[in-house]
Amino acid sequence: MTDCAPLQSNPDPEEQLRNEAIDLYIAGLRPTEISRRLGRSRTWFYNTLRRYQLGGRAALASRSRAPHTVHNRTPAQVEQAIIRVRELIMAGDDPELRYANFGADAIAMELKRAGITPPSRTTINRILKKHGLVAPRPRRKGKRKLPNDYPWPQVTQPNQVHLFDFVHRILVGGERFYGCQMLDPARHWPYLAAIPHKTAAAVSQVFVSAWQEMGLPNALYMDNDVVWRGSSSGQRTFSRIIRLCLLLGVQVIFTPPYTPEANPVIESFNGVWNRNFWQRTEFQDLDHVQAELPHFQRYCRHRRPLPAFDNRTADQLYPDFVPVLLAPDFTAHQQTRLPLTAGYVHFIRFVRSDGTFTILNEAWPLDPDKWAGKTIRATVDTAKQQLCVYHQTDRNAESQLIAHFEYLLKEKVVPLSSTFERSVVPLWPTSG
Fold it and tell me: Residue 102: inside a domain, yes or no?
């Protein structure tokens, strides 16, 4: 009999179960049926299958009795393991790895999980190239560099700032939908959703669902799409999205119009989402996308190595972080009209040559001789009904107040509920 498990005097029950799972797989049973027979989850089965594919029956031994590093593994065996990992990812049979990176760092991490000490990054790339498994890298387009005085928000801890963006997708059959992503840049923790329509109600639900799972941020940083900004013509009108954020004690930060380079972290993640998810599977419909999205999200949170953080995963960056979660029974966002709550709405803008800048369809003047061509932050304080304009010479410089205007509103502003009061870390450098 070929590929038999070695005889053992006192076999470990878990090890026996793993070997039985592989026996059933070799016999032709489907993963769902194997999981049902053995009383285990599909994730457990795929983890077992991956161990078998990487190291054969020996890799099914319980971790406590098997050496973490196989010291007598030959270079040829390591080379084969590298090839098997790459092929396993590209085959897409394992939901946990279906949308994984397939470069050297990702392969090294999977080798470690299998108890194999990986060779250097250079060696892995050389082996992949030797076997024709290196995909050509797309040429990156040059991006416009933002001015030195661009007021980047400070991110020093988890949930200080969340980034939001969306992508418009069209399936083979012509069905259109939107992929939404919320990202905590401190811990690189994503929340992903796919919605059929980009309406205020649908996006509000994405925000609520994200914050029920990720926790509430101090601020939300996003572009100027009319759905979350508000009216395309009316002045001093606040969208349902802005009202929801202020209701929850979340400050809103709008980037300059038509400036995707102002959100580089989320633009980079968009690239990963595109390569690893949208281009990896031919989705049939929105239901198919929504069924697969949790696999990609789980990979990004728990398995994707982050080179900027010594290839740690997102869940390893702040393991002790405890977020302030939005209550699971929160439904205020479903109201026909939300009140306008006391809080701050920030607009980052480039000052025009005539010294003006525009927020919510209304132009405001500054001294053109001094401020034309500069980048400013215009902050609406809804409680005090005022507009304050700030400038900082570089991202680490203190914010200086350069102008102040009345910003009278036509509706009552309600105070922030004590339910959503929490400590806030400054988003920009100040003198205290």
Answer: yes
